[in-house]
Amino acid sequence: FFSVPCASPSPHGPSARVGIPLEGPRCLTSPSKLTFPSWALCPPWGALSGRGAPWARTRDTRVPGPRFSAAKFFCHRKCKELFPIQMEGVKLTVNKGLSNHFQVNHTVALSTIGESNYHFGVTYVGTKQLSPTEAFPVLVGDMDNSGSLNAQVIHQLGPGLRSRMAIQTQQSKFVNWQVDGEYSAVITLGNPDILVGSGILVAHYPHSITPCLALGGELVYHRRPGEKGTVMSLAGKYTLNNWLATVTLGQAGMHATYYHKASDQLQVGVEFEASTRMQDTSVSFGYQLDMPKANLLFKGSVDSNWIVGATLEKKLPPLPLTLALGAFLNHNKNKFQCGFGLTIG
């Protein structure tokens, strides 16, 4: 149940010129890292940057309607986006905007650990303009050289009501489909099969107690032939002008994060995870240094397992080029991993 594959959009991240309201979600399905049940599925929208574009910045958009976006409330997003995403090998991405609403991209990744691959991605943004940074519907698709497809459709159905549908195939085999809906709560339905009687239902609801304090809960129900179960979790978030703290507590364990904006250039975050299933705990520290005048973005992290990582993103104006470098060192296993990326467009 906790290793359900996720359908994600184009892993290369849409170009900023298209004005897409969110980056693609990154799936977190590793059992050793999972402490909040709904993370077995993709967060409904905009939790983290795309897995294939670790240098893509996540934009915090405002959605008319509910006071809180439930997906963002439960995802510890503010803290997690400070941490660098692991890179390995060489990656070249070419983004081409064909119009104000349509964009394609090509990505070639060369790796010494995994398989080298090619991805072709397509992004379409509709004409329903809600704000200068939001337009619907959004259609995102990605196909690799083996024929595997990831695709999703995101649409604003009404004031405060948003939905998403995502599908994933692995070569010629259909592996996952998922439907989300968000109003004042988020309901996610993953891989439903009426004939077999299987599927996963996730519902979570945040509520504002005071201007600074919000509390909520989550219910996960999964069923398949011969097995069914329910997992419940509670969550809370406390927010002030330059910092926020979020905690989730449930049968799967505990997950707590603290985010602090020290200045316009420096942000830091601390993350604590305890898994009752894996009988393991970990603490991570991450920071982000943004220097707009130098077109430079640096992220670094270190955790209690003595894994140190960093990524550097450098834009090279006036050319439409973005250079990304990343390195991770695991002191316990004496392993080093590095990566290099170049984005054109």
Automatic annotation (TrEMBL):
Gene3D superfamilies: Porin
Membrane topology: Multi-pass membrane protein
Pfam families per record: Porin_3 (PF01459)
Chief location: mitochondrion
GO biological process, one term: protein import into mitochondrial matrix
PANTHER family membership: MITOCHONDRIAL IMPORT RECEPTOR SUBUNIT TOM40
Protein name: Translocase of outer mitochondrial membrane 40
Protein source organism: Nomascus leucogenys
